[in-house]
Amino acid sequence: MPPESTYVEPLTKKNVISRSELETRCKAGEILIVINQKVYKLDKWINHHPGGQLAIRHCIGRDCTDEFMALHPDYVHEKKIKYFEIADYLPKESDPEFAPIVGARSRSSEEILEAQSVKVSAAYRRLETRLRSDHLFETNYTNYAWEFSRYLTLFTMAIVLNIYGTCTMHYIASALCLAMFWHQVSFFAHDAGHNSISHSLEIDNGIGIFLADFLGGLSIGWWKKSHYVHHIVTNHPIHDPDIQHLPFFAVTTRIFQGFFSTYHQKEMVFDRVAQFFVSYQHYLYYPVMMFGRFNLYVQSMMFLAKEPNYPYRKQEMFGLMIYWIWYPYFLKQLPTWNMIIAYVFVSHMFTFMLHVQITLSHFGMSTEELGDAESFAAKMLRTTMDVDCPTWLDWFHGGLQFQAIHHLFPRMPRHNLRAAQPYVIEFCEEVGLTYHLHGFTKSNEIVFTALKDVADQVGFFLEVTKHEAKEFVDAQKIAIPESKKKQ
């Protein structure tokens, strides 16, 4: 049972809320969402949601059954959410079963998309049931034991080469081992953030805080807040923080107009600095990714400073304090300041492999805004690409080269994603969706081409903007009366 402050008494009389009433109440400020034809009021819970407020706000006023089921553990489905139920949901007043309207008038494009979404969602839920029955949501702890031994080996090598090193090559090798350790341990922290290791919120949060905060200096809470939003509004230019990288990158020309980021809560302006970097973004892609970890430090600290309601804030602040004690002490063992500076840059910049891997699956994919009528599964497959690689190389990618499958089933342990691939291919064939799968080289080519295509439009955009500005000024001059001009 949730805390007393968030408890909602079950209604003694069952209510029914229609779509129009739902829209009206949400416009008036109520936090209402629909799950499995039930309406839930989350006004008192939204500030305590472990995944942050935005993950809920992007679901207000609509059916988010698939998103909810994909991102939450079983005990939330079965018990916790029931305390917030207020009514049954009636999608259309004249049609409780939400059958497509035929005969009386032709269907709109939105109605057609909704009908398709119903079909896709039903098939997606059947697929999820099959995967569960085949035990692909169950954790293989032996796999995690092997992973942990790999992490321990890398970290031990970094320590030994640092402390007992006698030349530059030893210290650089130590820095590379530490970079690889951070790269690999991020996969484990990722699973903890999705609650897919022990399937216990407390245990997985503890694992995540230890790996991310104590050993990596990054906030797992910040990552969850950002990442859950990314999973719900994948590749949406205005809402998805994972494709909002001005002034360095723009994955769509839609960004040229400037926009208000709902995640960052600020205007994203395509100013002169952004125009310069975006013009060369296809060349700067890999170099910029090398500095990604420094940005994550800043984001982590800002999150913990600004999120007083985050339930694990004290634990994470303690974890970051420990990190900023052991890592500087670790650097102090090096013989010179030049070596310390070199060590910092090598250990941080070579984690770019992780940043490239994650963005690789999204930067070259669709950024269209198809609205709430599109099904969750269709949106995930439209906006995400899987990277093909041989089985023996799975350890390097951590299993997250299967990003499309991961987006369909975020709580599936990574080591089961490859086994789920044949099921997903069959599902796509059944419902007529495209499963994007490309080799590593081809994937990089797709992202490079996508970034270049946007970069090539910068000059054209500036020329058009300049021309429009000139026309506006000329129109203003013409509008001034002759008497005013003489004055």
Automatic annotation (TrEMBL):
Pathway(s) served: Lipid metabolism
**PROSITE patterns, per this entry?**
CYTOCHROME_B5_2 (PS50255)
Entries under Pfam families matching the protein: Cyt-b5 (PF00173), FA_desaturase (PF00487)
- Any stretches that span the bilayer, and where are they? 159-183, 203-223, 283-305
Q: What keywords sit in the KW lines?
A: Heme, Iron, Lipid metabolism, Membrane, Metal-binding, Oxidoreductase, Transmembrane, Transmembrane helix
- InterPro entries assigned to the protein according to its UniProt record, in alphabetical order: Cyt_B5-like_heme/steroid-bd (IPR001199), Cyt_B5-like_heme/steroid_sf (IPR036400), FA_desaturase_dom (IPR005804), Fatty_acid_desaturase (IPR012171)
Provide a Gene Ontology MF annotation, just one.
metal ion binding
Asked if the keyword Membrane belongs to this entry, the reply reads yes
- Which part of the chain is the Cytochrome b5 heme-binding domain? 14-90
Q: Name one GO cellular component term.
A: membrane
GO annotations under biological process? lipid metabolic process
Primary localization? membrane
Q: Where found?
A: Membrane
- Which portions of this protein are annotated as coiled-coil regions? none
Membrane topology summary: Multi-pass membrane protein
What's the family? Answer: Belongs to the fatty acid desaturase type 1 family.
What's the name of the protein? Cytochrome b5 heme-binding domain-containing protein
This protein's species is Entomortierella chlamydospora
